[in-house]
Design brief:
By secondary structure, this protein is an alpha/beta fold. The chain has two domains: about 5-120 and about 295-310, ATPase, nucleotide binding domain (Nucleotidyltransferase, domain 5), CATH 3.30.420.40; about 125-290, Nucleotidyltransferase, domain 5 (2-Layer Sandwich). It has 14 helices and nine strands. The strands form two sheets. It has a five-stranded mixed β-sheet. Strands 8-7-6-9 form a four-stranded mixed β-sheet, with helices on both faces.
C-alpha cells in the first residue's frame, strides 16, 4: 500500500449506510467510522442521491479518523451496494461516485451479499474455503465462494423471489388474511394482527398492498413469527419460510461442490429461524454453522485493503 493512502469500506443499504476507514487495530476497531441515515441504494433513490449518501458516509468516517480534509479522494474505496453487479446499474453508480470525487481507478463496486460474506466469514487462508452466507432480513439470498469462484442463489426481489424473507412472510400473511376474509380458510390471530396493522377488511388490505414496498411487507414478518405458536396459518408460514431458507443454503453448498468449511447466517428472519433451518439441513452441513464474525462494512474494508496492498 502506498504511504499515506488509506482504504475505505462502505456498506450501503436501502435505509442508510456505514463506512469504515482503515487500518483496523488489534481489536478489529477501524481508524474511523461514519454513517448516514438515508438510502445508499440506487434502486431506492437513483444513482445520484445514492452517491451523495455514500460520499457523506465516507466523509464522516474520514473526519472521525482525523485524516486531512479532502484526502479521501485518493483513498482506495470498496462499496457494497445492491444491484451494482449488473453492468448498466454499476456504470451509473460508478459515474456518480467519481463525479463526486471518489478516485476512479481506486473504486470497487461489489454487490452487497459479497461484502456481507467477507465480513461474516473473512478468508485468511485456503482452509477457510468454501464458505456460504445466508442473508434473510427483508430479502433473502445465499452466496458462496471457493477460491475465485462465486455462486449466488436467490435474492431476486420480493416480486419474483426472496422466498423465506421478511417481505415474503409479509406478502404471504396478507394473502392468508384475504383468504380468511373470503371464507376460504379459518380466521385466527394472524388475520386479526394483520388487520390491526394495516386496516380492517379486504379493501383496506388491498389498498395498502398496492403501493407497499418490500420493507413495508417486511415489517409484518414479526407478527407472523409471534403468532406461529397459536395460529395454524402463521405456523405454516414459519415452516415454509424455514424450508425456503434451508433450500437456499443447501443449493449454494451443492453448487460449490463440497460441504462448506463454514457457513453463517445474518438478518433478523435468519436468526429467528436458525434452529428450524439447521434441522432441515444435512447434518454435516448443519454442523458447519459458525457465528458471523463481523458486519458487511468490515467485508467492504477488507476488499478495499487488499486492493490497496496490491496497488491495483
Amino acid at each position: 500500500m502506498e504511504r499515506g493512502v488509506t482504504a475505505v469500506g462502505v456498506d450501503g443499504g436501502g435505509t442508510g449506510g456505514r463506512a469504515w476507514v482503515g487500518p483496523l487495530d488489534e481489536d478489529g476497531t477501524p481508524a474511523g467510522r461514519g454513517a448516514v441515515d438515508r438510502p445508499c441504494n440506487p434502486y431506492a433513490v437513483g444513482a445520484d442521491a445514492a452517491a451523495d449518501a455514500v460520499v457523506a458516509a465516507i466523509v464522516a468516517a474520514w473526519t472521525d479518523a482525523g485524516r486531512p480534509a479532502g484526502g479521501w479522494g485518493e483513498a482506495w474505496v470498496c462499496a457494497g451496494l445492491a444491484g451494482v453487479d449488473r453492468p448498466e446499474d454499476g456504470a451509473a453508480m460508478r459515474a456518480a461516485l467519481v463525479a463526486r470525487g471518489v478516485h476512479a481507478e481506486r473504486l470497487q463496486l461489489i454487490a452487497d451479499p459479497w461484502v456481507a460474506l467477507e465480513g461474516a466469514l473473512p478468508a485468511r487462508d485456503p482452509e477457510d474455503d468454501p464458505r456460504v452466507l445466508l442473508v434473510a432480513g427483508t430479502g433473502s439470498v445465499a452466496v458462496g465462494v471457493v477460491g475465485t469462484r462465486r455462486v449466488r442463489v436467490g435474492g431476486w426481489g420480493a416480486r419474483v423471489g426472496d422466498e423465506g424473507s421478511g417481505a415474503w412472510l409479509g406478502i404471504e400473511a396478507v394473502r392468508a388474511t384475504l383468504q380468511a376474509l373470503d371464507g376460504r380458510t379459518d380466521a385466527g390471530p394472524l388475520a386479526e394482527a394483520i388487520q390491526a396493522a394495516w386496516g380492517a377488511g379486504p379493501e383496506a388490505l388491498v389498498g395498502r398492498a398496492r403501493d407497499a414496498s418490500s420493507g413495508a411487507f417486511g415489517e409484518l414478518a414479526p407478527l407472523v413469527l409471534a403468532q406461529a405458536d397459536d395460529d395454524p396459518a402463521a405456523a405454516a408460514l414459519r415452516a415454509r419460510a424455514a424450508a425456503h431458507l434451508a433450500d437456499l443454503v443447501a443449493t449454494a453448498a451443492a453448487r460449490l461442490g463440497r460441504t462448506p468449511a463454514a457457513w453463517a447466517l445474518v438478518g433478523g428472519v435468519a436468526r429467528a429461524l436458525e434452529d428450524e433451518v439447521v434441522a432441515l439441513l444435512d447434518p454435516a452441513l448443519g454442523a458447519a454453522l459458525r457465528p458471523a464474525q463481523g458486519p458487511p462494512v468490515a467485508g467492504a474494508l477488507a476488499f478495499a485493503t487488499r486492493a490497496a496492498e496490491r496497488g491495483v
